[in-house]
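User: Here's a chain of 371 residues. Predict its fold as tokens.
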Amino acid sequence: MALTLPSLTGLRWMAAFLVFGLHLHLIAYFADGILARGLKLVFGAGATGVSFFFILSGFVLMWANSRGGASRWTTFWWRRLARVYPAHLATALVALLLFAVWQPGIVPSVVPAAANLLLVHAWWPDPAFYQSINSVSWSLACEAFFYAVFPLLVAGLTRGGRRTACLVAGGSVAALWVGPVAALRVASPESVGWFFQWTPPGRLSEFVLGVALARLVALDAWPRRLDRLTTYPVAATVLVAGYVAASHVPAPYKYAGCTAVGFGLLIVAAARGDLRAEPSLWRRPAVVRLGELSYAFYLVHMIVVFVLALVVGEHPRLDAGRGILLTMATLLLALGSAWVLHELVERPARTLLLGLPTVRRRRPEVPRQRM
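Assistant: Prediction complete.
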């Protein structure tokens, strides 16, 4: 049975592009009109792209573990560090340099900056922490926590079978709704919104969902009664319905609750399709290549937005022609910067770190699926 699932890499580009589109909507390149309303309609729920990353991360890591990619946990954590940290450090340093030169007033103080570099900044209920330096890096603090607890999830799920995995998957989806309802009884809406949008524990259910789904696929134990849900048309329909609903529900439900089922079904459909060698848009070389660049693209796109804002101003609200040109410039510059980051920092640093003698002697990790 194949170990690599290239469609999952291709799907990463979809998630990164949703986040990119959301930020284009928020920075208001277009004056009020049909294009501005169109961006809001299509990308207003783009924050759910981060939820896809979290679910996919759990799925990929559990799949690798289940299909022969297991290693010592210290080696696992080192591989995760080698995967995510070099690009994070590089973009953080670039952002700090840009801030220091052009907007020194937004350079974070020592403690938030240190928290960011240590990937613990999403634990503080203060935007000066969880939005520090490169604002999108808060999700990496969540991933760092997920990596820390992953051995516990593996231990629990590998001792059980299909029933355990189904219960964990269902419980994870339920937690996305029950958790906020329960929290609102004892805390303010602002505190609950912060917890379930930004914090590692608040986003853990999404990662656990991915882990449980991978366990079901690895066991070849996907429930037969749900087989039809994992065809691309049905999974896409469920996802689109949830995505549309996410724009009409309050925080904290909008960030994951509406789309978790759709994202999960899409990931399972893509994985099972790859295992059967079925045709897939997401397996095409160009799409897979974009997926390989998606992590770097995610990290650099707000830095590109910052640089362009120095030229055109914040929230420029341009006419249609100039707004489209600026949008295309942002996309192309972000893609170009992502390629540079991926080829000159991410890949060489990972190769260097994994080439150390103490790591080289361990079993290699399954390639291609990212983060």
